[in-house]
Amino acid sequence: MKKINRRQFCQRLMMSSLAGTSIYGTLGSLSVANAFTRQQNFDDYKALVCIFLAGGNDAFNMLMPRSSQAYNVYAQARQSLAIPQQDMLPINPLTSDGTEYGVHPSMSGVQSLFESGDLSFIANLGALIQPVTRDEFLNNSAVTPPQLFSHSDQQDFWKSLQLPSNQRTGWAGRVSDLIMDTDAMLPLNISLSGTDLFQRGISSSAYGLSPGGVSRLYAIDDGNPDTVRRSQVFNDLLNENHQSLFARAFSGVQRNSMNLAGVIESGLENSTVNAPFVADPLGLSLRMVARMINARETFGNKRQVFYVVTGGFDTHGLQAIEQPQLLSSLSQNLKAFNDALSEIGITNEVTTFTNSEFGRTLTSNGDGTDHGWGGHSMVMGGAVNGRNIFGTMPDLSLNGPDDTIGGRIIPTTSVDEYGATLFKWFGLSDGELDLVFPNLHNFSNRDLGFLAS
Hints:
It holds the Pfam family DUF1501. Keywords: Signal. By secondary structure, this protein is of the alpha/beta class. The protein has one domain (19-329, 358-372, 381-442). Helix content is 37%, strand content 12%. The chain contains 14 helices and 12 strands. It has helices at residues 6-20, 23-32, 68-78, 108-115, 134-138, 151-160, 171-179, 228-239, 245-269, 281-294, 296-299, 319-344, 415-426, 430-436; strands spanning 46-53, 63-65, 89-91, 101-103, 119-126, 189-191, 207-208, 303-310, 350-355, 375-380, 389-390, 413-414. The protein is globular, with a radius of gyration of 23 Å. The two termini are 34 Å apart.
């Protein structure tokens, strides 16, 4: 009989599971076989940092055409929201489609990162189950994610890539189910923004941090000398031999949580970064991510996924005032985060990417924009094939080939393709990518090319 190695065993288990069960059963089977999986094969460190722009970022005022003819089409569609051509910050992609582009005038940090080769754009990205044309959309024959243009539904689809179900998991959660290191102190997924579907798995969950670090139990585990007696009583309760299975489980989880909090605090104690982050929630969160990455050897994880949410992008009104502030914060903090990773000496091992549940309408509602569909995202890091625009920039003509109606642009690059490119770099095999990204088989690009292999 021909011998097979552990990697081949896992691949055959995946394929046999896919043939006869749902994705949930497949991942459950794989978690049982986790002793055979590949975390121990990772001898290098890699991290992904997801920044979710909650509310629906108007990406068509983040990356814009500057060439005269293309700008005129843009300005006609955007009306009063059009950024003056002379105010755009020019960028110079290594590969040209014949049009000149610029970024929002508040994004000098992003302009600098792009020009230095540390950042690229992914054009016209969005929630798709399969490719969609305008004709298919208008004649109702298109297969689309449920409840397009709804915040909650599109956020859930972006994060899970699955249709609604009580068993819905996130793509980062499914990755953790597949490759989690059972010997590591920390889970693969770490959230700076609370519990989230993106990092929910079947057999794994995320560890939650605040921008200030570990959140201690109030009046019991907060380090206050006055709480010593209360802490002792609480610990005595945890250490009792409880008859109830639920009580024993709670005690175990609580003890592990308190012990892990101590380990994280110890690791962060001497982990500092000097980069000039903005003193806002996004900046404080990214500073904490940088400090955690700096302390990575304390925790022993070879793979980590960090998740940060920053809100306010639902600009139905006052967009001309609010969006420049939002994009300025994003730009400055991306630059500071890149500087922090350079300071640590780990830019090649960390890739940062942005998401948003949808773009916005090209047309103005008078003082802002309404919910759209496609939009642009950014990827940043030393492994990024920088200074490029990947994917296809859309035709911004109203009622043009990429417009559903009313300036809602149909995406031409799917989240599955985007995520598969990120996690291929992370170390997943083709078979594992098919498990994590359920719609990937409907698209032609399994690798968009924005990350070095």
